[in-house]
Amino acid sequence: MQRSQTTGGELQVAQLAKAIDHTKLTFAPGEDEEAAIAQLCEEALTYGFYSVCVQPRHVAFCKARLADTGIKVATVIGFPSAKVKLDAERLQPTIGRQPLSDKLSQTRQAILDGADELDVVIDVPQLKVDARRGSEVARLGLKSIQEAAQGRPIKAIIETDLLSDEEVVLASRWCAELRLLMVKTSTGMVEGGLGATVDTVKRMVNTVLKVYPKTRVKASGGIKTRAQAEALLKAGAARLGTSSGVQIVAGEALSLEATAESHY
Fold first, then answer.
1. Rounded distance, CA 23 to CA 160, Å?
2. Ranges of each domain in the chain
3. Backbone angles phi, psi at 74, to 5 degrees
């Protein structure tokens, strides 16, 4: 059974936790991956996060660990293998450039391993070409992955730090036209980028609402504080992707405890 903190004034904290995809996608040199993912699952149980978001190689482990808890297991498709520099990416973007055949293979294997949701990185270089030429190659790639996903919900990562406002609108519109579950701001792998911002989230929300309101927005990238999380949710984000979920939620819980103690 899922364990969550629900005592004393923590209902708001529990609601915030339910908006978080608790994320672990990168590892320090020599880090014990299995131990780190086991801890991620335990934290998801303790705080009641909506899901864990992990690399494809960890999906089966998480599914077994979280069986019958109600916590979803999400994974990434076409995710960068290493962090990239913002300036270099703006000159020659590479995010999401993996061959479509590789993304389709990752998708099929993730489904076999039990993934509940797929966070798919759009082909950013192709998206930018499409925006200039009026073509839709990147959109068709997303559609192919959607078809291979066999009904699994898809969140398309569009990497907003690399896009103009017009390209953000275009990519968000495509996601809504495809009736994807969500359009997501960032991978969090662009060093020097802003990640999720209130203005960008609002732009994405306003776009999908005009096309297909059931497509929502996931804010991800650089979310480390309770204030950031609340601001992004207020801007219209339906889900938050962060590796700082415990800091965001437990920090508030500690604050509530300190406030209570101050009355004695």
1. 19
2. 18-261
3. -110, 155
Superfamily of domain 18-261: Aldolase class I (3.20.20.70)
Q: In the predicted model, what is the mean pLDDT of residues 145-160?
A: 97
Look at residue 251 in the predicted model and tell me its pLDDT: 77
Residue 254 has pLDDT above 70, yes or no: no
Distance CA 19, CA 83 (A): 26
179 φ/ψ angles, rounded to the nearest 5 degrees: 60, 40
> Parallel, antiparallel, or unpaired: how do β-strands 51-54 and 72-77 relate?
parallel
State pLDDT tens for residues 98-150. Answer: 999 999 999 999 999 999 999 999 999 999 999 999 999 999 999 999 999 99
User: What is this structure's pTM?
Assistant: 0.91
User: Residues with catalytic annotation?
Assistant: 119, 184, 218
How far is 72 from 67, CA to CA, in rounded Å? 9
Instruction: Quote the DSSP letter at residue 122.
Output: P
Dihedral of the alpha carbons of 76, 80, 83, 84, in degrees to the nearest 10: -130
Distances (CA, A) of 16 to 13, 141, 153: 5, 33, 21
Amino acid type, 155? K
The per-residue pLDDT for range 193-240, each reduced to its tens digit, is 999 999 999 999 999 999 999 999 999 999 999 999 999 999 999 999
Q: Which residue is associated with the tokens 């066999």? A: 150
d(CA 236, CA 77): 25
Structure tokens at 33: 């991956």
What is the rounded distance in angstroms from the CA atom of residue 104 to the CA atom of residue 147? 10
Residues 93 and 164: their CA atoms lie apart, in Å, by: 13
Angle at 72 between CA 162 and CA 97, to 5 degrees: 25
d(CA 59, CA 72) in angstroms, rounded, equals 10
